[in-house]
Write a structure and sequence with these properties.
Layout: E1 5-11, H1 18-26, E2 32-38, H2 44-53, H3 65-74, E3 81-85, H4 91-100, E4 104-107, H5 115-127, E5 132-134, H6 142-153, E6 159-167, H7 192-195, H8 200-216, E7 220-228, E8 237-244, E9 249-255, E10 266-271, E11 274-279, E12 285-290, E13 296-299, H9 323-342, H10 355-373, E14 379-380
Parallel strand pairs: 1-2, 1-3, 3-4, 4-5, 6-9
Antiparallel strand pairs: 6-10, 7-8, 7-14, 8-9, 10-11, 11-12, 12-13
Helix pairs in contact: 1-9, 4-5, 5-10, 6-8, 8-10
The structure holds nicotinamide-adenine-dinucleotide (NAD).
Length: about 375
């Protein structure tokens, strides 16, 4: 079968982290194939080698993203969309180059350094009638979608409180530096010139912000925050209190120095008619407690789940689905939207995180940093 959609990737050489997860997730979809790439700007060897390993035509492995955007746009079989999986500082320029060349974009988060840059990308994508996804990956899990539908259906009533966290431990050694020794591999996350104004909140706190918005639909009206740098230029830990547009409060905690934790995104959403609890590390289950009844553990793909979102399941129940499937679900929606847009159909209902989610993420990061700098002052977001 000839693929209907060609895509290209910027970043994601063979030694990189998230590019490979994207490629595997996209390969779940038989409608798409990888046709071009610029996998590394700093190492020509890695760039070429990655293209070889992935079986690409060497002519379509480019030395720069700009050359790739221009040459692909000029080809009759050029890429339909680009996936940007480079460090944060590069997202804006790369996304802009592809939009200017008429190519749909799916970009990693945090979208840009500044709110203005993110808004400019939104304007450009609208002007060019191009789709723009931002990879808030955890919203691709089936139970994230089921919880969202349950909240919409009123199964927990009005949301009155949220408690959510995303702890990791991988930077704990930074609290015990050994003179002369390099700390950890992906040091760019700790470098303001590459990561932006935040490390921990930008990298993982913003996932909490987006996930809670996705599930509850609540917008953050204002927030206050304290962050901890432990002698580093950027934050390694943050506690954030939010107030939503419906008057309810939420407490978010993210950390990269929490011993014994890995990718512990966990959310607890309390309504006046019940509650929902879900953990990223056990993503096939959700704990649902209706008011006055015993808690129950629901899993995706079982017939007692009447929510339409359960249809996103790709595996029979009991076979765990993981991060690759969550990414794959985001791509499934994005690629379906590209095919619909080709036929001039409306693409608003396709369920993937949009450029507006990216803008909200950047606003959230800036508000947290501003609050923390000002002795936990409330910062308005609406
Ligand atoms: N959504 C998620 O769950 C998630 C998870 C991990 C990372 N991320 C995001 O993905 C992005 C990449 O993170 P990572 O951990 O994979 O980083 P990484 O350092 O492992 O990989 C970055 C890649 O980008 C390449 N690169 C850098 N500048 C380039 C340029 N100008 N042109 C072409 N290639 C270039 C590097 O050679 C490397 O291949 C970051 O923005 C990060 O926040 C998101």
């Amino acid at each position: 079968m000839n693929p209907k959609v060609n895509y290209g990737m910027v970043g994601g050489d063979i030694g990189a982290f998230i590019g490979n997860v994207h490629r595997k997730a996209i390969s779940f979809d038989p409608r798409v194939r990888l046709a071009a790439g610029c996998f590394s700007a700093s190492s020509e060897n890695k760039n070429r080698e990655t293209g070889e390993v992935l079986g690409l035509d060497p002519e379509r492995v480019y030395k720069s993203y700009l050359e790739m955007a221009q040459k692909e746009a000029a080809r009759p079989d050029g890429i339909d969309f680009v996936t940007i999986v480079t460090p944060n500082v590069t997202h804006y320029e790369i996304a802009k180059a592809f939009l200017e060349n008429g190519i749909h974009v799916l970009c990693e988060k945090p979208l840009t350094f500044t709110v203005e840059q993110a808004e400019e990308l939104k304007d450009l994508s609208e002007k060019r009638n191009l789709l723009f996804g931002v990879n808030y990956s955890y919203t691709g899990y089936v139970l994230a979608k089921v919880m969202r539908e349950m909240v919409k259906e009123g199964k927990i009533g009005k949301v009155i409180n949220v408690n959510a966290e995303y702890p990791q431990e991988w930077l704990l050694d930074d609290l015990h530096p050994v003179p002369g020794q390099e700390l950890k591999l992906s040091v760019w996350r700790k470098d303001p010139a590459v990561a932006g104004i935040s490390n921990c909140v930008g990298d993982i706190g913003s996932h909490i912000e987006n996930f809670i918005y996705y599930v509850t639909g609540l917008k953050i009206r204002r927030l206050l925050a304290v962050t901890n740098h432990f002698g580093q230029p950027l934050d390694l830990n943050a506690n954030i209190l939010v107030e939503y547009d419906n008057g309810a409060n939420g407490a978010y905690w993210c950390s990269q120095v929490a011993a014994g934790t890995l990718n512990g995104l966990a959310v607890r959403i309390y309504g006046d008619e019940g509650s929902l609890e879900w953990k990223q590390e056990d993503p096939d289950y959700v704990r649902y407690t209706p008011r006055g009844e015993a808690p129950r553990i629901l899993t995706r793909g079982n017939s007692y789940l009447k929510e339409k979102a359960a249809a996103w399941s790709q595996m029979p129940t009991g076979h765990p689905e993981g991060l690759h499937v969550a990414f794959a679900n985001i791509y499934k929606a994005f690629i379906s939207a590209i095919l619909a847009s080709r036929e001039g159909k409306n693409t608003d209902e396709f369920d993937f995180p949009r450029v507006t989610d990216g803008i909200n993420g950047v606003k959230f990061i800036h508000a947290v940093v501003e609050s923390a700098k000002n002795d936990a002052k409330w910062i308005n977001l609406l």
